Amino acid sequence: MHERLIIATHLFVSNKMTFLRQSLRFSRLPFMCWRCRRYSSAHTGSVERVIAAFRAVIGDEGLSVGLAVREQHGRDESVHRCQPPDVVVFPRSVEEVSALAKICHHHRLPIIPFGTGTGLEGGVGALKGGVCFSLRKMDQVLDLHQEDFDVTVEPGVTRKGLNAYLRDTGLWFPVDPGADASLCGMAATSASGTNAVRYGTMRENVLNLEVVLADGRVLHTAGKGRRPRKTSAGYNLTNLFVGSEGTLGIITKATLRLYGIPESMVSAVCSFPSVQSAVDSTVQILQAGVPIARIEFLDDVMINACNRFNNLSYAVAPTLFLEFHGSSKSMEEQVSITEEITRENGGSDFAWAEDEETRVRLWKARHDAWYAAQALRPGCKAYSTDVCVPISQLPQIIVETKEDLIRNNLTGPIAGHVGDGNFHCLMVLDPNDPDEVQKVHDFTQRLARRALEMDGTCTGEHGVGLGKRTLLQEEVGPLAIEVMQGLKATLDPNDLMNPGKVL
Fold first, then answer.
1. 3-state DSSP assignment of residue 369
2. Burial (Cβ within 10 Å: 0-12, 13-18, ≥19) of residue 373
3. Whole-prediction pTM value?
4. Pure H helices in 201-319
5. What is the rounded average pLDDT for all residues in the chain?
6. How many whole angstroms separate alpha carbon 337 and alpha carbon 343?
7. Looking at the predicted structure, is the pLDDT value of residue 3 above 50?
8. Element at 18 (helix H, strand E)
9. I need a labelling partner for 218 at 20 to 30 A (CA). Which of 26, 120, 268, 415 fits?
10. What angle do CA 78, 82, 86 make, to 5 degrees?
11. Is the predicted pLDDT of residue 32 greater than 80, yes or no?
């Protein structure tokens, strides 16, 4: 019967047992049918049995239907409005994740995986209600193999947490998206960041994944316990799940590549007369074979914001922030080649730093770019959108983007990972002004289509989520979308895994 309700309320009362009883009786927030969005029936009984089944797996403390908890798990750092789940569960092991997924599968309840909520495209909103799987309690670092340069982590482990764990081993994990995101969440969104030009993105640094599928079965994408540095055995299921944004399964373990901590690190900052000269320097540095670790770009608006926010005195001009990793001997050659190239392209105000304290101070403008941008309009919200184009197209798209911002009176300083053609507009807007929100939305659509016209992508590292589904169709074409939908239907025929995202 389609009119019977599966209910989990947002009423708030202090006594948890009374709270659950009242929530089951009075809530108006139903789980939704995946196909027609009508109220779904509980195929094997009432909601009391569903909640009881959850509690039998994870106990009273492992479940919440409180409004504040649900809203916390229905939003990320994007401008997409909060759409909370009906229930939040907190499993502690893959066995519990599997058992809970089986219950959801049996009752046709949507499943939304949740890591740290640092995403930027609305990937955790519960569009059709359902159950949020908050994975923060699964926070163990497992199976560190120092001699093989790999480690396995649970989904509650963040990148900073892992590197703190590795501090005395001489190893580190270099993929750095900025936020202290969970590593399995980073795998789910195919995150990257400032070190990608040297060390690659999550897609190049994940060796194996443990994934709980929509029906509760547990898949090891490269075989249970396997961790070779390369393989040509069969389809690449690992990379199928990297970037799937929770729409194909719940990542419960990730085996990752590690790297030796460099003997020496040197940082530099250099300003340029134009975007073109800064990008020309970048291309020439890469062509010269300099193994640069980070090469970041800030436009004049962003530099000005950083100067004001941190009381700095950088030249208000297009600026590169660079970092080199290697032996002390190799540093000399890298620095010499880079300095020569930048000077030939008009680079000036060159500042070098080797000791950690000075390097941190040198990079402060780039690290605080988000807060500096937001400070341009106190009381407003910052929203970051990203695109990626071939490096040769970077000057043109940045110039056109800046003209677009000025023409539409929008605040959007630019920062980017210029070494791989990826950049961000840090949009600052009043979320309570519907006209401005619409203008920002229209701008981000134009920016993405501008990137597609230049043979780029609508998202270099933020993912598709809610905001870029139409753009994904334009980018890859109808046949590719059809193939993706076929894969989704095979692994998740009832569309329970994070429905409404990506496709």
1. helix
2. buried
3. 0.88
4. 202-205, 237-241, 275-287, 300-310
5. 89
6. 10
7. no
8. helix 16-26
9. 120
10. 140
11. no
